[in-house]
């Protein structure tokens, strides 16, 4: 085991060097970086203090004042260069994501591809920050909207998307004329250092960007709180658990700061009688077992129509039994490790509760790779008699609760009867069912799919969810508007001063 560990540690150091992270940044300090792949410590990093946080935010605020005056297409040029750096570093950064978050190779690379995609999107956006021209009721007047940079954008991110979430926010925030201060998860510090180094390369090539345009704040939740409470931070985009959002949301509201909250999910799928079962099986397998169940969009609940239940669920059970679980760095396994012991314990706790509620479990056991501190688990499929707790809560692990349904109205009701509202899917070839699922009386989630699983969103659409998922939107569509302030301008080019709504106020 020690040789595996030192291999990972050596490889990590080699990758970090190639990505431009100096070893002094991760060779001593009070924060430990672990790899879930072997469970071993691979680096130590110095944490920032509250004083550092205040200084970093002050410096970001100064950078914002300069950056906001740079024309948006020129700001886009920085993101174009950053996209180039990411393309060149894709293999290394993807591998580092696998080392630090335990993702299988294609998912580690896929996460970096998401960063590249959002850069491409943001470059185009830099020439499309459109405002409306609006008809005015007054002669000789013009009314329009203009969009202005907002300020310092604070980004708080979770361990499971250690690089993409920051990139979604940062590419948009920078193009929109803001500066960024990032508080990454304390479980993904090395990928944060790597992202910072890659952006620094792009900044160097760009030439004349203000200093401190983008910074990283390293530490635990206290550093997140420093962002949340600092009046110079205009917007905090916080990704993580609903527990975190419950703390962060009210604190931001108290000082009237903007927030984009991207919180927990409890995503469900519905398999209808007409479903293409082969397609549904593949989509559900990836949605529920992929990323070892550690995506916010992981499928956690499944409703299968009673007429096909006995045909479909055994096929799914077979997929659960045969799925390969293993070291994502040295094997082609489809499921890697859970992030840590706490996560494995939470999984076991939920399975115990489900069993006590009448759940019938396939899988869920620890997979022994001879690595004492690494936590690999067989994904669990649990047939539940009813949607009771723990089905109604998010356990951030690969557990899929399967339930039988008979009536479409009833299944829609059950689908929506949980706190979270992130992602959802229906598998059907029946147009009425598909359209009803997408309609006002259908799925109440921010993402609703037909014949596609719950996970694996593209960056072109706005990403986020309703209810306890927090209501935030980031990434594509018009999510950029959340990173800017809107001004409505009315210009009088007449020689009179007519008041709106016919009000008269004539002074002599
Ligand atoms: P977490 O809530 O434990 O931590 C997320 C981040 O918040 C970390 O950087 C942490 O340091 C910080 N934080 C925690 N408490 C804070 C506080 N009081 N003030 C300020 N910052 C605080 O989440 P995690 O375990 O890293 O990630 C898993 C969770 O994230 C799951 O619930 C998952 O569904 C969710 N998630 C949501 C999305 C989304 O887009 N909706 C994406 C990824 C993950």
Automatic annotation (TrEMBL):
Q: GO MF annotations for this entry?
A: aldehyde dehydrogenase (NAD+) activity
Give the annotated active site: 262
Q: Where is the Aldehyde dehydrogenase domain?
A: 30-486
Gene3D superfamilies, A to Z: Aldehyde Dehydrogenase, Chain A, domain 1, Aldehyde Dehydrogenase, Chain A, domain 2
User: What InterPro entries does the record point to?
Assistant: Ald_DH/histidinol_DH, Ald_DH_C, Ald_DH_CS_GLU, Ald_DH_N, Aldehyde_DH_dom, ALDH7A1-like
Q: What is its EC number?
A: 1.2.1.3
- What does the UniProt keyword field contain? NAD, Oxidoreductase
- The EC class name is oxidoreductase
Pfam families per UniProt: Aldedh
Q: Does the keyword Cytoplasm apply?
A: no
Quaternary structure, from the entry: Homotetramer.
Sequence similarity:
Belongs to the aldehyde dehydrogenase family.
Q: What is this protein called?
A: aldehyde dehydrogenase (NAD(+))
This chain's source organism reads Paenochrobactrum gallinarii
């Amino acid at each position: 085991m020690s040789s595996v560990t030192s291999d990972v540690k050596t490889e990590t150091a080699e990758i970090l060097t190639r990505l431009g992270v100096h070893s002094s940044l991760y060779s001593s300090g009070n924060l430990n970086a672990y790899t879930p792949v072997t469970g071993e410590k691979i680096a130590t990093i110095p944490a920032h203090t509250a004083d550092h946080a205040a200084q970093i935010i002050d410096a970001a605020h100064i950078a914002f004042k300069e950056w906001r005056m740079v024309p948006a297409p020129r700001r886009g040029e920085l993101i174009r260069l950053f996209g180039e750096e990411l393309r060149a570093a894709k293999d290394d950064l993807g591998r580092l994501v696998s080392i630090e978050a335990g993702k299988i190779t294609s998912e580690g690379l896929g996460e970096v591809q998401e960063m590249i995609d959002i850069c491409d999107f943001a470059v185009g956006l830099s020439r499309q920050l459109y405002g409306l021209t609006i008809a005015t009721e007054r002669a000789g007047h013009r009314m329009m909207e203009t969009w202005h940079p907002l300020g310092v954008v604070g980004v708080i991110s979770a361990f499971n998307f250690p690089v993409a979430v920051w990139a979604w926010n940062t590419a948009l925030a920078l193009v929109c004329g803001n500066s960024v201060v990032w508080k990454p998860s304390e479980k993904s510090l090395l990928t944060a250092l790597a992202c910072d180094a890659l952006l620094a390369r792009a900044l160097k090539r760009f030439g004349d960007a203000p200093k401190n345009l983008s910074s990283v704040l390293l530490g635990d939740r206290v550093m997140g709180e420093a962002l949340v409470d600092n009046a110079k931070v205009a917007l905090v985009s916080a990704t993580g658990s609903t527990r975190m959002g419950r703390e962060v949301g009210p604190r931001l509201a108290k000082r009237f700061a903007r927030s984009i909250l991207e919180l927990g999910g409890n995503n469900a799928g519905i398999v209808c009688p007409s479903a293409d079962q082969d397609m549904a099986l593949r989509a559900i397998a990836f949605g529920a077992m992929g990323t070892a169940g550690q995506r916010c969009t992981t499928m956690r609940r499944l409703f299968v129509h009673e007429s096909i239940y006995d045909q479909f669920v055994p096929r799914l059970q077979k997929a659960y039994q045969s799925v390969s679980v293993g070291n994502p760095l040295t094997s082609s396994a489809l499921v890697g490790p859970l992030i840590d012991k706490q996560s494995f314990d939470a999984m076991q706790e939920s399975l115990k509760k489900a069993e006590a509620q009448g759940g019938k479990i396939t899988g869920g056991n620890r997979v022994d790779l001879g690595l004492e501190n690494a936590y690999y688990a067989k994904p669990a499929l649990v047939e539940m008699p009813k949607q009771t707790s723990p089905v109604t809560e998010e356990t951030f692990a690969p557990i899929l609760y399967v339930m039988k349904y008979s009536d479409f109205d009833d299944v829609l009701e059950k689908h929506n009867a949980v706190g979270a509202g992130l992602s959802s899917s229906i598998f059907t070839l029946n147009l009425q069912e598909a359209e009803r699922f997408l309609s006002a009386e259908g799925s109440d989630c921010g993402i609703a799919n037909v014949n596609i699983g719950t996970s694996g969103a593209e960056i072109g659409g706005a990403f986020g969810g309703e209810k306890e998922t927090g209501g935030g939107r980031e990434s594509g569509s018009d999510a950029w508007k959340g990173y800017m302030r809107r001004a409505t301008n009315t210009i009088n080019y007449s020689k009179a001063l007519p008041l709106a709504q016919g009000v008269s106020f004539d002074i002599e």
